[in-house]
Design goal:
The complex is a heterodimer of chains A (119) and B (580). Chain A is an alpha/beta fold and 119 residues long. Helix content of chain A is 45%, strand content 20%. The chains are: A alpha/beta (119), B alpha+beta (580).
Chain lengths: 119, 580
C-alpha cells in the first residue's frame, strides 16, 4: 500500500513516514502541496494523508486536485484544530469520517489506513 | 394594604457599581429628590399663595361686611330709641302746652291724660304726676300712691328745672322697680314753674330692643354713661348692674369695634351715644357666630385645598418615580449592554488566545508525539532496547503526557470555537465532561468530588453548544468558589418530559442568604465586589438560559449549599438566536 503524507511540518511528516514504514507501509511525504502534486504525477498512491490547514492551499483543495489526477485515491485528513465537530461546522464534505486529530495515535492511523484501503 | 416597600422606587436602594467607565449617568435618588422638590415647589407655591391671598381677602371682606351690618343695626336701633324717647317727650310737652296748670292739678283731668297716653302709646306710660316748683308732687295718677311725695331733693328734678326736658337713667325709685322718667317743665302764665313727670315702662323699652333680630348669641342693650345696664341683656349682665364689657369711648357717630374679652372671646361691638339722653346703645355679637358661615366655607375650602395639594403631590411623586424609573432602567440596560459587550469581547479574546495557544502548541506537540512514537517504534519494532523496560516506560510517559496535552488543547479549541452562535445537536454528557475537564486539576488539588449522573434516556438536544458551555462553566465556577476543601459537586441530568430535560447542579458549599438569593440574578449584584466580581456572571447565565428557551432557578441554604435547577428544551425554539 502506497501512502502519500502531506503536512507543512517537516519534522512531523518525516517522522510519521518513518513510523509507518516501520509498520510495513510504503510512504512518501511532501511538505508543500506543489510537491505533493508533483509526486502524484510520477507515482501512484492508494491513500493520501493530508493536513487540513497548510500554506497556499487547504487540505480540501489539495484533495480535489489529487482526486482529479488520481480518482481511485483515498483520503484521510489530519487537523490540529479540534474535534469531529470541526469538520461538520467547517462544511467539509469528506463523505466518511476519515479524519484524525493531532497529536496522532499511530495505531488509530494504521487502523484507518486499513479501513480506507479495504473499501 | 400597599406596603412602603412596594411604593419605594426601584432605583431607591440601587448603588452605583462604579466600575471604571461603567457608571450610571445620574445619581437617581438625588435626581428624584430634585425633581420632586422643584415640581412640588413650583406647583404648590402659586396655589398656596393664591389660597392664602384669597383667604385673607375673603376674611377681610367678611369682616368689613360684618362691621357694616352691625353699624346698620346700631344706627337703625338708635333711630328707633331716639324716636321712642322723642315721641314720649313730645306727648308730654303737648300736654303741658295745651293745658293749664289748674287743669293738670285736677286728678280726673290727669287721669284722662294718662288714659289717652296709654291708648296712644300702648300702655308705655304707667303713671303721670304734676310737681310744683317746690318739688312736691301735687297731682298724681297711676297705680301707686305717690301724691305729696317730695322730689325737691332728687337730682333729676334739678336737671329738669335747669334744661326744661329730662330723660332719666333707669332707676329704682320709691317703688324699687326699674323705670325711667321723662319730665318736662313748663312756665305757667302766672310765672310759676311746674313739671309734668311720666314714668315709662322699661318692659316697653326692652321690647323695643328685643324686636331687633340678632344672631344666636348677639345682644342689643342700653347702658348709661357709667356702664350700668338700662335694659336687660342676655349675656352681659342684668338690668341696673354694671356691664361686663368696658364702656366705649364717646363718639357722635355710630362706631363698630372689635373687643377681646378676658376669656379670649372676640366680640364685635357696635355702639352709639343717644343725644340728649344718658344712654349708650350697644349691639354686641360674638365674632365666631357671625363668621360661622365663613368658617364653614373656609373648612370646606381648606379640605378641598388639602385634597388638591395631596393629589398634586401624589401625581408629582407618581409621575417622577415612573419617569426616573424609566430613565434608570434605560441607563441600566445601556450599562448591561456595555458590560455584555465587554464580556463578549473578553470571551472572544480569550477564545482567540486559547485557539492561538492551542494551535501553536499542537504542532510542536505533534512533533514530540511522533518523535517519541518513533523512539518507541525503534525500541519495539526494531528490537533496539526492546528489553529495556525503563526506557520503554519513559517513552510511554512522554506519549501519555503528549496525549494529555492534546486533550487540553482540544478542549481549549472547542471552547474557543463555540463563541459563535450556532444551533446544533448537543450531547449534554459530552459537553459536561468537556467543561468539567477544565476543573480536573482544581478538584484534585482541593479534594472536591464531582459526580455526574446523566440519565440513560437523556437524548441529544438541539441547542447552542457555546452558550451551554458558558452556562455550565459559570455555574461550575460559582460552585467551586462556594466550596471548601472536600466539597461535593453533584450534577444530575434527567429527561423531564417529551419537551424538556432538567439539569441540577448542586454544591455543598457555603450557601447564599435569602436576602442575596432574591437578587442573585440582578445585573451588577455581587457580594464579591472587593474580589473583583462584576455581578454579571449569574445575570448573564440567567439570560443565556432564557435565550435557549429554558428556565433557571436557584435554591440555597446558608451552610448547606446551593442548587441550580436548569430546564432546557429538547429543541431550540428559535434557530436564529441573537447574539448574547
Amino acid at each position: 500500500m502506497k501512502i502519500l503524507l502531506v503536512d507543512d511540518e517537516e519534522h512531523l511528516v518525516s517522522t510519521l513516514a518513518e513510523r509507518l514504514s516501520l509498520r510495513g507501509f510504503e510512504v512518501s511525504w511532501a511538505i508543500t502541496c506543489l510537491d505533493a502534486l508533483a509526486q502524484v504525477e510520477i507515482d501512484t498512491f492508494n491513500v493520501a494523508v493530508l493536513d487540513v490547514k497548510m500554506p497556499l492551499m487547504s487540505g480540501l483543495e489539495l484533495k480535489n486536485k489529487l482526486q482529479a489526477k488520481c480518482p481511485a485515491m483515498k483520503f484521510i485528513f489530519l487537523t490540529g484544530h479540534g474535534s469531529k465537530a470541526d469538520f461538520k461546522s467547517a462544511a467539509f464534505d469528506i463523505g466518511k469520517e476519515y479524519y484524525l486529530i493531532k497529536p496522532l495515535n499511530i495505531d488509530v492511523l494504521v487502523q484507518k489506513l486499513r479501513e480506507v484501503t479495504a473499501i | 394594604m400597599i406596603s412602603f416597600r412596594s411604593l419605594k422606587p426601584y432605583f431607591w436602594d440601587h448603588k452605583d457599581p462604579g466600575i471604571g467607565l461603567f457608571k450610571h449617568l445620574f445619581d437617581y435618588r438625588r435626581m428624584w429628590k430634585l425633581v420632586v422638590g422643584f415640581s412640588v415647589t413650583f406647583a404648590l407655591v402659586p396655589v398656596l399663595c393664591a389660597g392664602i391671598f384669597d383667604f385673607m381677602v375673603t376674611k377681610a371682606s367678611m369682616e368689613r361686611e360684618l362691621f357694616q351690618r352691625t353699624a346698620r343695626v346700631v344706627s337703625n336701633t338708635r333711630r328707633s330709641v331716639t324716636f321712642f324717647l322723642a315721641k314720649h317727650r313730645a306727648a308730654l310737652k303737648f300736654i303741658v302746652r295745651s293745658s293749664s296748670f289748674e287743669d293738670l292739678r285736677k286728678p280726673l283731668q290727669l287721669y284722662r291724660y294718662l288714659e289717652d297716653l296709654q291708648v296712644v302709646f300702648q300702655e308705655a306710660f304707667t303713671d303721670l304726676g304734676v310737681i310744683d316748683g317746690a318739688g312736691i308732687q301735687i297731682a298724681y295718677t297711676g297705680p301707686f300712691k305717690l301724691e305729696g311725695v317730695d322730689y325737691s331733693g332728687q337730682w333729676w328734678f334739678k336737671e329738669v328745672l335747669l334744661h326744661g326736658v329730662y330723660v332719666s337713667d333707669v332707676f329704682l325709685g320709691y317703688r324699687q322697680v326699674p323705670h325711667l322718667v321723662i319730665a318736662v317743665s313748663h312756665e305757667s302764665q302766672d310765672g310759676s314753674i311746674y313739671v309734668l313727670r311720666a314714668t315709662v315702662d322699661t318692659v316697653r323699652f326692652n321690647s323695643l330692643l328685643a324686636d331687633f333680630q340678632l344672631s344666636k348669641h348677639g345682644s342689643a342693650f342700653i347702658i348709661n354713661r357709667n356702664g350700668m345696664l338700662q335694659t336687660e341683656s342676655r349675656y352681659y349682665g342684668k338690668i341696673m348692674e354694671r356691664m361686663t364689657l368696658p364702656v366705649p369711648e364717646y363718639s357722635a357717630r355710630t362706631q363698630v369695634e372689635e373687643v377681646t374679652t378676658d376669656d379670649g372671646k372676640q366680640l364685635i361691638v357696635g355702639y352709639a351715644y343717644i343725644e340728649n339722653t344718658p344712654f349708650i346703645l350697644l349691639v354686641v355679637k360674638p365674632k365666631d357666630d357671625l363668621m360661622g358661615p365663613w368658617y364653614s366655607t373656609r373648612t370646606t375650602l381648606l379640605a378641598f385645598l388639602s385634597m388638591s395639594i395631596m393629589a398634586v403631590i401624589i401625581a408629582i411623586f407618581s409621575v417622577t418615580t415612573h419617569l426616573i424609573n424609566k430613565i434608570h432602567l434605560a441607563d441600566e440596560k445601556r450599562l448591561i449592554a456595555m458590560h455584555k459587550l465587554e464580556y463578549e469581547n473578553k470571551m472572544a479574546s480569550i477564545g482567540r488566545l486559547a485557539a492561538g495557544v492551542a494551535h501553536e502548541i499542537n504542532n510542536p506537540l505533534s512533533i514530540i508525539n511522533e518523535k517519541a512514537g518513533l523512539i518507541q517504534d525503534m525500541f519495539v519494532l526494531k528490537g533496539m532496547y526492546a528489553k529495556d523496560e525503563k526506557l520503554l516506560s519513559l517513552v510511554g510517559w512522554i506519549l501519555k503526557a503528549v496525549e494529555r496535552c492534546g486533550t487540553i488543547t482540544m478542549r481549549l479549541l472547542s471552547f474557543a470555537r463555540h463563541m459563535d452562535v450556532s444551533i446544533g445537536p448537543v450531547n449534554v454528557k459530552e459537553l459536561l465532561d468537556e467543561v468539567l475537564g477544565l476543573f480536573d486539576k482544581e478538584s484534585d488539588y482541593r479534594g472536591i468530588t464531582i459526580k455526574v449522573d446523566v440519565g440513560s434516556d437523556v437524548p441529544v438536544i438541539e441547542s447552542d453548544r457555546g452558550k451551554l458551555q458558558q452556562i455550565f462553566l459559570n455555574l461550575a465556577n460559582n460552585a467551586f468558589a462556594a466550596m471548601d476543601q472536600g466539597g461535593i459537586l453533584n450534577i444530575k441530568v434527567e429527561k423531564q418530559n417529551s419537551t424538556f430535560i432538567s439539569i441540577i447542579i448542586a454544591d455543598n458549599g457555603c450557601g447564599i442568604s435569602q436576602e442575596n438569593l432574591d437578587r442573585i440574578f440582578e445585573p451588577f449584584y455581587s457580594t464579591k465586589k472587593k474580589e473583583g466580581g462584576t455581578g454579571l456572571g449569574l445575570s448573564i447565565t440567567y439570560s443565556l438560559v432564557h435565550k435557549l428557551g429554558g428556565t433557571l432557578e436557584v435554591d440555597s441554604k446558608i451552610g448547606k449549599g446551593t442548587t441550580f435547577h436548569i430546564e432546557l428544551p429538547l429543541k431550540s425554539r428559535n434557530k436564529k438566536m441573537e447574539k448574547l
